[in-house]
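assembly run, all chains below
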Amino acid sequence: MKVKVKLEQKPRGLTFQDLILKLSHFWVKQGCVLQQPYDVEVGAGTMHPETFLRVLGPHPYRVSYVQPSRRPADGRYGENPNRLYKHSQFQVILKPSPVDVQDVYLKSLGAIGINLKEHDIRFEEDNWESPTLGAWGIGWQVLLDGLEITQFTYFQQSGGIDLDPISVELTYGLERICAFLQGVESVYDLRWSADKTYGDIRLMEEQQFSEYSFDRSDAAAIRSEFELHEKQAKELLDGFKGTAGKDRARYPILAAYDHCLKCSHLFNLMDARGVISTTERAALMARVRTLACRTASAYLEQISPAAQRPEVRA
Amino acid sequence: MKPAPKSALKDKSVELLFEVGCEEIPAGMLPKAEEELRTNIEKLLSAESLSEGVTVETFSAPRRLTAWVRGLPAKQSDVESEVTGPPKSVAYDSVGAPTRAAQSFAEKQHVHVNALYLIQTPKGEYLAAKQIKLGKTAEQILTAILPRAVHDLTWPRSMTWTGLDGTRFIRPIRWIVAVLDGKPLKFSIAGLPAGDTTRGHRFIGSNSIRVRNFADYEKKLHSNGAIIRPSRRREKIEAELNAHAKHGSFRIHEDADLRRLVTYLNEFPTVIQGDFDPAFLSLPDEILITVMRDHQKYFAVEKKNGELAPHFLAVINIAKDSKGLIRAGHERVLRARFADAQFFWQSDQKCRLADYLPKLERVTYESRLGSYRDKVERVRAIARWLTEQWFNLGLLQAHVAEADRAAELAKCDLATEMVREFTELQGIVGGLYARAQGEPDEVADAVYDHYRPVGLEDPIPRNLTGCAVSLADKLDSIVGCFAVGVVPTGSSDPYALRRAALGIVKIIIEKKLPVSLSLAIGAAAKALLTHKPKRGVTPEQETQVLEFILDRAKFVLREKEGFGYDEVSAVFRAGADDLLDARKRLVALKAIRKSKNFEPLAVSFKRIRKILEKANVSAGQGRQVNPELFENQAERHLYSTAREAGSKVQSLKREGKYQEALEVIAGLRPAVDEFFDGVMVMAENEAVRANRLTLLAELLREFTTVADFSEIGGEERR
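ok done. output:
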């Protein structure tokens, strides 16, 4: 009698944390500063000051970091295998954009175990825009066998200001890529480490924050928080005008930006709660954008007064 | 055999290979860019008188725009010209020796003073010099014009990849190939020097391929995984699609746009088949096909009986999928997409379609026109009005209650998760939910169809209720937007009002609906005034809307139905509030146009109009013709013939017999000709003159109510 021996199969693909390590390692070797996630809630890696502000002005910069991105309206109580309240982006900024940036990017896929010759990888038109940041760029979504794995953007404007030089922004969707590598259908089945799954680590958070943002958040309180943060951001930005010399150099524009980010997140919470009409939605977004644009031009003035270009209001 | 004699440089023709290497250009923009590159090169060559006998072909793939120019003369011809200098009297002194003036002219022209000669001009004898402008070589010319040909390409939205002073293009330019008869040209584009080295497919080709000419380029590119001719890529895709269909005994769900898109999306297209779980087939076909086509760019396939089969065909950009990894990947993505759609299908229907109405309050249509919830009420009112009218006019299948219900449900799907995810399915999803929830077919189909038609070729709603809702929705959009000053200008038409007007026209004409446009616009204006946001519409705005719709109607009748520009103008000048009636008159006009009396009569009518315009008499003036004042047999005859014809035309018109009416009018020709031959309109006697003008004015008024002939035979205007 033949006995089928079940071989202990080596689990397929990188763990979630190894994926982060490999990408970090790869981009550090490309000269990137390895930054940390921003500690204020953001909806995308672009909102991290290391992107939003660093792309402004003339100074070359290369940075990469993981950014947990909160999008309250995308929460699904942990019940949908692909949609998350908070997902993780791996963000890379290359300033100025290198001529071989596509090739370098593709090498990074090789570094995480994707054999480029065995897959269908393409760059498909997808221009990116963030109306609340007054930021936009031209580029593609990178498709791996039909799956969107990266947003690849030549940044054109940030905070309503034309960029010079142009930075490239690469945003990897870590959960998707990892699920692809491991061949799992649900994000919660991802192996995060050798013995913990994504679900072990994050499911509770998804459930509770979905419950909070859809059902239990206090819309009125959030609205007044929005007003308070907006007020502080405005006051800080107003105060910058009268400064000079050393005072100007240490003036807390970065704090104004934190308040702007808070407004953006609070807006998302109100949106998820369903208390914003479409008209109001546009108006609130414009308010956040105004803060973002003012922050950007103040920042630019602060880092290099000579570098400021005529500002284009979004 | 003797070798052919070496021909002179200017008789020789040369060949150019030119390639702009880019990062991936959006597929939808390539066909136009290809075409533009060709015309740019042709125009620039022609401006240099270098286009004779030249063939310019252009090709494109995601990473390249390529031009192949053959039969280029190697050099422009030399051009001889004569330059006139000072007059003889100034150029030579009394003994005939050249003066300083002659010498300085010679110096300026770079010729010896002995080479100057005299020419005879109308002003006398003048000194002249011969100048030969040497023709530039093709190489010199191309070096100058190729950067220009690229620079002049137009894109919907360009970018820079370096900085504010950098080149702008659709995507970053990374290499340039320019080889003229085997020799690289010297110029640069976007700071990149041209060369003879191209790049193959990103993953299955070399990154550095030297090429000598187009044939060499095409061959080497092909072996490096890039097929440069879109036609060849298309053939490859079609052959492989057919092979899969044959092998699997299914057929392709036809999609011409998708075929074109994938042709330009891939450098080396290869078709693979994937499967999905047949359980997903319980979702409506529309949803499955939209997910496959719009989101994944897959071809759906059908069984012989027309039902969808649980397979798809994907076009990948690589030569093969030997391990089946690509197939597995695409199947996995599609599975997740279908699972989403299935989730929405179930969760959306946890409540009934009508329950989404309150949620529409949060979806703004236009800030000053309120939410979609407000729009729904207006559309209902207009749809009720339309169906009531139709019923009263004898269209017994017009059903007010059904139109009202369909209008109420039409926009509900905008609040569903399915439409939020798949926006292109608006209307369709509502129709599917309505049907699944037991609404009558008439209502469900009306909801499904009410965005139709979305273009000149798109079908109109299938049933009368759908036509009513579609018309009501579009009328409300146009009247509302015009009332708040959102009027389309140039390329700006954010609410797609032109498309809406076109839809109104198509529905009325194709469904043969009795609609008075002015009354319908009035009904929409009333709906806007009596429902939120309760805005008034001025009479001027209503007229503006009418003209806007009539303008689209003219367009449809010309472009879609093939009526002549002048025919449409003639009929519309006689009024077109009822488009069906206007169309009937057009058909009659077109039919009678060829008859012998017609065109000459049109010429006479045009003459009448000019005379009246000159004499400042309007066709509608209230005077009566006074037969007593006639002096001439011809005018009496015209008067009596016209009276007789007038009553005939009136009764024929009442019966809708427009062709017969026009025939009667055409029969006026002898009398009109006789009049112009024998009568001086602008008589000395003021009363006689006025009377004749009145006669003509009446003629024009009476006989231009079917169509204004004075427009016929006018120049083609656009």
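The radius of gyration of chain B is 36 Å.

Chain B touches chain A through 50 residues (CB under 8 Å).

not gonna interpret more than that til we talk
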